[in-house]
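Help wanted!
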Amino acid sequence: MGLIVQKYGGTSVRDAERVMNVANRIVEAYDAGNNVVVAVSAQGDTTDNLIEKAMEINSNASKREMDVLLSTGEQISISLLAMAIEKIGRPVISLTGWQAGFKTDAAYSNARIDRIDTERLQNEIDKRRIVIVAGFQGINKYGDITTLGRGGSDTSAVALAAALNADICEIYTDVDGVYTADPRIVKNAKKLDDISYDEMLELASLGANVLHNRSVEMAKKYHVKLAVKSSLNKVEGTLVKEVNKVEKMLVRGVTRDNDVARISLCGVEDTPGKAFTVFSLISKENIGVDLILQSIGNNGKKDISFTVKESDLDRVIEILEENKEIINAQEIKFAKDVSKVSIVGAGMVNNAGVATKMFEALYNAHININMIATSEIKISVLVPRKDAERAVVAIHDKFMLA
Amino acid sequence: MGLIVQKYGGTSVRDAERVMNVANRIVEAYDAGNNVVVAVSAQGDTTDNLIEKAMEINSNASKREMDVLLSTGEQISISLLAMAIEKIGRPVISLTGWQAGFKTDAAYSNARIDRIDTERLQNEIDKRRIVIVAGFQGINKYGDITTLGRGGSDTSAVALAAALNADICEIYTDVDGVYTADPRIVKNAKKLDDISYDEMLELASLGANVLHNRSVEMAKKYHVKLAVKSSLNKVEGTLVKEVNKVEKMLVRGVTRDNDVARISLCGVEDTPGKAFTVFSLISKENIGVDLILQSIGNNGKKDISFTVKESDLDRVIEILEENKEIINAQEIKFAKDVSKVSIVGAGMVNNAGVATKMFEALYNAHININMIATSEIKISVLVPRKDAERAVVAIHDKFMLA
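Answered by r_m:
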């Protein structure tokens, strides 16, 4: 008998039929003798519908009131899921974020979990009840409802697993697990049986769309064993855990990210601290800068290129315009028709041949590389968006990941 | 400068436009220098839609989980209304039932308010914020969400007014106020400027459908001055308050209630306690018995007739069937095609002529009276349902209420 934390996303509970399916799966784990705590998201389109309701009234509503509104989505899910389990005839109780003891900071719409007061949770578990917890939400020190922002329900689940010292945290989603590449792009992409936290972190931030980074970071920090599984079938998923053995496969996966735009500041004065000035202006607005390329100075001038999320581009252009005297560039260029393609693998840092092999794959496919960035466990290249899918396939084939 | 508590029902906030209207009305009171606390119901069909969602999954869900589900309806309303007030540009904050300090007993789906811990409310008022509170809901000693049952939002508003010692509690609804009769039946029905708590209680319980009884009882107990107003126009409503002056008008209103069924136990043994036995069987199931008529015994047998809500009839018949040996009646008869028509007025107890005048009106209209019941401030008669509207008009005319 162990303690299992499960997490089900919005598509997994989008209608009555899916809710009953999820209920059956939870009861299966419970009937096998486990204690089960479940974090659940809002049903299907609920959150979007609520946002639409708000927009009709005030497109600039405070984040506090948006959180009061949006948190109802998960509250609806938990009660319906609890009712489904009641129907099967097992003891169950639903808890909202504040009932489950999720204490967060005060950053409405993007709060961080400070701690979970587990007294109520533990009481319910001790009564051998299945506990259904609203993901994505908590309460701050003012007694106000907060939401955790994107990927919040994954984070809720991992936080529950950490606080309750669970044996495993199972994240149920609409894919079977973590693949070597997006199966929609690469036909022979292969599911990974396991992957390390660091590799998963890189994959998540590179657009693998399976687990949100915050949840993986937290899992790593608190040594929570994660399993990514499909809520639609019984296929074994992917385990995310500390992997210590030497990996047979250097490269674990190939990803593509289209939410990227490139900005080039051409003919900037080549004085110390110029790049710092630019990036500090941008980071002040909480906008993340990703790949950065700085040309070698020439006649006292240099070029600085970098990428941001495409959705941040307009704001970045504004910032650069507002500060053009300080930046003093000859020309500012930007491009949206680019994608970031990356390979990830814990082993690659010790193997110089990996980068060469990646570039060779792209060269053979006649794909131009705009920018390159490397870290300990990943190599990213910026390529024209029209070539991005071909690039993923070419790299996947080259490394024979399938 | 005073403190006003306002209450808006579901139809008053059913869409974005109505929410903006309500927001404007609240701001008007606020800008006049008042502190304003608002209790609001779930939007239009929200509650019905939520119930439907539950029914698809489990038609026999626990009341606890139903309350978790249904309480989201008001939480949606409060956030949207707060956003509308933010848009107008006034300081505002929304509070759920538990945030507003509504402490209730543990009777899920029909909880009673034990007290309101007003600390948070008072803090927000002191900051000159408009406070929007979710009606219909609270929290019990286990930290679980409860709902107050039918008419709950009215009760929430009156409880707020009592706890905060408000100058007035304004109940906004879709009618202008309290009328001498239902304006849909009696064309020349007249709006009352004021009415006493007791008269309002009788009118409410007799089907006037303006205010729920629980809220009027609470208003009477805590001396809360109530105003019933329309949320759709600016017409002066009806004040409900302690009326001490001798009333000019003996009869304040005529009401009709179709949710009534008559049951007759014919040929019951005329022994002491027989009626008590019957009614205790029924009251054990929490079913209210209204008019009671007991014939004078004859040959050791008597007839007992009484009325219940039509919706309770099937259950009452079951109870009588299950206990027919104990009751030992020669025949049990029941009728659904009846209505209760009543006149209400604080002055009538001292004036014997009122009843005579009422019966005369019905006699002249050729309407048969089945049963009669009187209290200090009302006289009710049971008439055939087909004649009920004519009865209301005839009585209204006779007393020249218009």
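OP: Thanks! One thing I noticed: The first helix of chain B runs from residue 16 to 31.
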